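4.2 Preliminary Data

To establish feasibility before requesting continued support, the project team ran the inverse folding procedure on a target of 245 residues. The structure was first converted into the token representation described in Section 3, and no sequence information of any kind was made available to the design step. The complete token record follows.
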């Protein structure tokens, strides 16, 4: 019996040593952390989808890119490596806990008609702006009357919408991600506390600093709003939002 106890103790020592060794291996701890990151589905493989989704892949997230022509996504996913996958919109919605809808705003009502139930319970990051010449005067008017964030949430019923990455051109995200010194601030807007928390971490992992306001204030940094197109630090953006008092 004593021999058995000694064997158990020695086995425990070996196991502890193996665990310590594994944790010291470069990438092991990162792999463990990456497993806890939410999976992300991206609808749209254009400039915004490819840029922001790509930054998340580089930060260790699994990202499923999608479009109506999934075969066109192969160059993007090949370039980004094994954490990036490509396929259909339905597959992206099934894959992701978080969904980035990187499409023209007029596509949101169509997505609601075709895939509505799949959005229920999802955290939806919405970087789309309504523009009259592309999306139509009627839809633009609706976003102004309801507020653009509330409009998105009214179409994607049961989802938790966070407006983000819509306040400037994607070229700024390419240039300014993970810059030295004070990071560029990204205004975000949402009402669900967990969705805002998750989106805030996604903004940080993409290389920026989030500043959050309620969904009703999303119009302030939508295209045409007073904060649209502004490259600010988090301190400056909080001042512009009146959050410093």
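Position-by-position output of the design step:
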């Amino acid at each position: 019996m004593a021999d058995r106890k000694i064997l158990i103790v020695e086995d425990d020592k070996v196991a502890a040593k193996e665990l310590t060794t594994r944790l010291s291996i470069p990438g092991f701890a990162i792999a463990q952390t990456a497993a806890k990151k939410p999976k992300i589905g991206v609808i749209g493989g254009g400039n915004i989808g490819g840029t922001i989704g790509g930054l998340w892949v580089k930060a260790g997230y699994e990202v499923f890119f999608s479009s109506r022509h999934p075969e066109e996504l192969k160059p993007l996913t090949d370039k980004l490596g094994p954490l990036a996958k490509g396929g259909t919109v339905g597959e992206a919605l099934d894959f992701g806990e978080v969904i980035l809808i990187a499409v023209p705003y007029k596509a949101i009502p169509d997505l609601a008609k075709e895939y509505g139930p799949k959005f229920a319970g999802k955290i939806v990051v919405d970087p789309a702006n309504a523009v009259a010449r592309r999306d139509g005067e009627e839809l633009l008017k609706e976003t102004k009357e309801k507020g653009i964030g509330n409009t998105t949430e009214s179409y994607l019923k049961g989802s938790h919408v966070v407006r983000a990455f819509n306040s400037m051109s994607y070229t700024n995200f390419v240039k300014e991600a993970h810059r030295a010194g004070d990071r560029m601030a990204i205004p975000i807007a949402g009402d669900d506390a967990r969705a805002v928390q998750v989106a805030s971490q996604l903004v940080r992992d993409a290389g920026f600093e989030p500043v959050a306001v309620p969904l009703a204030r999303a119009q302030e940094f939508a295209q045409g709003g007073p904060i649209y197109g502004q490259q600010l630090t988090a301190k400056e953006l909080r001042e512009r939002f009146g959050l410093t008092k």
